[in-house]
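Fold this sequence, please.
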Amino acid sequence: MAYKITEDCIACGTCVAECPVEAISEGDIYVIDPDTCTDCGTCVEVCPVESIVPAE
């Protein structure tokens, strides 16, 4: 299961640098491409506002 970024995202960019498959793209709220995400969880561990959660 991939992850998604909620509206709590502060667009700090920490997760982008940590993603090993470059599945996260920038914006007002960052977005994770579910087809690219490998469910490694690295982004979840580094998010300072806990805005990355499992996709439903």
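The chain has a mean pLDDT of 95. The domain at 3-54 is CATH 3.30.70.20 (Alpha-Beta Plaits).
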